[in-house]
Amino acid sequence: MAETQVKMPQMGESIFEGTVTKWLKKKGDKVQRDEPLFEISTDKIDTEIPSPASGVLQDILVKEGQTVQINTTVAIIGDGVAKPAEGKPETQEPPAQAKQPSRPSGPPPVAGPAPTTRGEKDEAEEAEHEHIRSSPLVRRIAKEHGIDLASLSGKGTGINGRVTKRDILSYIEQGAPAVPPPKPVEAPKEAPPAPPPMKFTGEVERVPMTAMRKAIAEHMVMSRRTSAHVTTLFEVDCSRILKAKEKQQAEFERSGVKLTVTPFFVQAAATALKRFPIVNSSLEGDTIVYKQAINIGIAVNLEWGLIVPVIKHAGEKNLFGLAKAINDLGERARNKKLTPEDVKDGTFTITNPGQYGGLIGTPIINQPQVAIMGMGGIKKRAVVIDDAIAIRPIIMLSLSFDHRVIDGATADQFMAEVQKELENWPV
Amino acid sequence: MSLTTYVEAIRQGIWEEMEKDERVFVLGEDVGIYGGAFKVTAGMLERFGEWRIIDTPISESGIVGAAIGAALMGMRPVAEMQFADFISCAFDQITNFAAKCRYRWGAGVPIVVRGPSGGGVHGGPFHSQNPEMYYVHTPGLKVVCPATAYDAKGLIKAAIRDPDPVIYFEHKFLYRRIKEELPSDDFVVPIGKAAIRRTGSDMTVVTYGAMVHAALEAAKELEREGIDLEILDLRSLLPFDKQAVLDSVRKTNKVILLHEDTRIGGFAGELAAIISEEAFEYLDGPIRRITAPDTPVPYSPPLEEFFLPKASDVVRVARELYAY
Predict the structure, then answer these.
(1) Domain that holds residue A410
(2) Shortest CB distance from A165 goes to which of B253, B280, B323?
(3) Which domain range does residue B254 map to?
(4) Confidence of residue A181 (pLDDT cuts 50, 70, 90)
(5) A138 in Cβ contact with A168 (< 8 Å)
(6) What is chain A's mean pLDDT, rounded?
(7) How much of chain A is helix, strand and coil, in % rounded to 5?
(8) B306 touches chain A (CB under 8 A)
(9) What is the rounded end-to-end Cα distance, in angstroms, of chain A?
(10) B60 and B176 inside one domain
(11) Does A137 contact B324 at a Cβ distance shorter than 8 Å?
(12) ipTM entry
C-alpha cells in the first residue's frame, strides 16, 4: 500500500550527485524511520542517510558503488505486505569489488544531467529525477527552521505532491528534525579493520576512484597549479604546552573534553593570524581578500580518505572551546556525521603529517587559502640552551605558503609568532 | 435611518462640498437642466444656479480645459464625463497639462474629473469601459475607484478638497444596486488608503470597484468549503496602498488579483510585479490574475456576461490556488 521512495539527498548547495557506498540494510529488512539506511559519498562529505520512513526495505534501485544524481530514487520502503519484487533479484556487491564503473571522472560539481552509467539496468533511468516541489514561502520556512526539504519528500499535499505551507507548518508542529535528522545513538566503536589484502584476479586490478578520492585528487592538482608553493620549517620547544596540557587535562575531561596538543597549535596559529592577516587571506584575480573571521580547518585522516572540517571563529575561542570543537568535528568526521556546513568557509588549515612518527611534511595548500601549517611528531631531542645540552620535547612545524601573496619574510615572521606563543605558553 | 445608494452618495458628497465651499462648481454635458445622464447632479441647478451648475457643449476636451483654467484661477471644478469612455477625448488636457502643472511650475490643478465606468449594463464597447490604467500610468494624477456608498461619498469629498487633479471612476453597475446607511457627519475617505472588506487566512483577493462585490460573493460560497478569503479593496489606484497589499499577502501567502479591466497592462500586472519583488519569500503559490480578456467590451449580453469576471471565476481560481 503505502510506499516511500528513498531519494539521494542533496548534501550541500553545489552537489549534484552522490555515490551509494554501502547499504546498511538488505532487501526485505525491516527499517525504522531515522534508522541509518545507507552510506553515501559526495564531493564534499561522506555520510550515513537515515530512513525516511518505517517499513520494509522493499527494493534497492541503486547499488553500492553506483553514482546517481540527487533526488534519484535509490530504494523503496514498503509496508511489508507488498508484493514480492518481480524477478529482479538485487545482488549486493562489496564496494571494494565494485564492478559498476563509476561515472567517468570530470570536474565534479557540474550542473546538468550527469551521464547515466552505461551498462546499468533500467532502474536508474526510470528513477524519478523530480525535485521536491515547494514554494518560496516553504523554502524560507525550511531555511529558518533548518529543515531539509528532502525530509518532507512524499509528504506534500499540494498539487503534484507539492509541499505547501500547511505541510511544513504541521511538520514543524510535530517536531521536525533539523538537518541532518537525528539518528538513534549507535556507537561504531570497533577498531577500524585493517584494509583487506588486495585480491587480484589478473595482473592488475582496476578500481574506480571514490567520489571523495576524485575530489581530493582534483583539489590537490588544482592547488599545485594555482599557488606558488614554498615551505618554511620551524622547530618549537613543546615543554610548556605539554606542562599546560598535563595540568588542564583532568579538568577538561570532567567536562567530557579530551585535551590533545592540537588546540594549543590552533590557538597559537589564531593569535599569529590576527597579527598577520595576509596569511588569513585569499586571492581573487588581482585582489587580495582579507578575512575577519579566522576559521581554521583541521585535516582529519579517515580510513576512506581525508576531510578538513573547519573550526569556525577559532580566533574567538579559548583553549577549552577549541578542544571541544576539535573533539566534536573529529568524532563526527569519523562517524560520517559531518554536514556540508562543517567543511565550508575555512581560512587557514592545520594538518598533522607527524601522527605516524614522520618528522614533518610539506603540505599542499587547501585552496582558496594561502597557507597551511603542518605539525610533525613531538620527540624528545637533545638541544643546546645557553651552551648546555638539554633534553626537550621538540616539534617541527612547516608552513606551506602561497608566494604570490606571502613573501618568505612574512611567512617566517608568522611562524616566529606561532613559536613564541607556544614556547611562552602560560603554565 | 434610511439607506443611501452609491449614486446618491456621490450626489450628496458634491452637494455638501458645494454648500461648504463656494469655489466648488460642476460642469458637463446635461448636468444642469437634465440633472445628469445618471442623475448625479439632480436638483443642483435649482439649488446652486446656472453659474455653478454649467451645461456644456459636447466637448470633453473643452470641459476639462475649462476646468483646468478655472482651477488655476482658484476654483474647484468638478467635471463630469457623461460616460468614462469619453474621457479619452480629454486625454491631452489631463495627461499633458493637468498632470504636469505642479511639476513644471508649481501650480496645483485642483480639478475632479468624474464619470461612470464599467460594464454589466449592456452598454456596449463605448459605454462600458474601465479606462483607469491610462491615468494610473500618468505621474501627477490621482485615481480613485470607490466600491461602496460610503467610499463613493468619502472619496468624492476628498477628491474635491485635494490640491491636485483627481480622476474619479464611479462604477455605473453599482449606482443603484449598492445601498448602505451613511453617517450624517462630514466624513472623507483618504485617497491612497485601502480597506479590508473581509478578514481571512487562506488567501488574499486584491481588487477594487465592482469586483469587490464579486469577491465578497465568492467568499461566501468558499466559506462553506472551508476556504477563507481575505478581501482587500484598494479604493485608490494612484497612489495605492502598497503596504496594505504586502501586509495581507505576507499574512495569507497566496494572492488573487482581480479587476474588471482587461488583462494586459491592467493593475493586476503591476501588483504582481510588486508582490514578487517585495514579498516573494512569502508566497506559497503563484500570483493569480482574474481580469476581463483583452477585447473590447461586447454589446451582446451573453458575450458581455462571458467577458466580465464574476464570483464563479473567483471561486474556481481560489479552489485551484488553495489546492496548489
Answers:
(1) 227-423
(2) B253
(3) 195-323
(4) very low
(5) yes
(6) 80
(7) 30, 25, 50
(8) no
(9) 67
(10) yes
(11) no
(12) 0.79
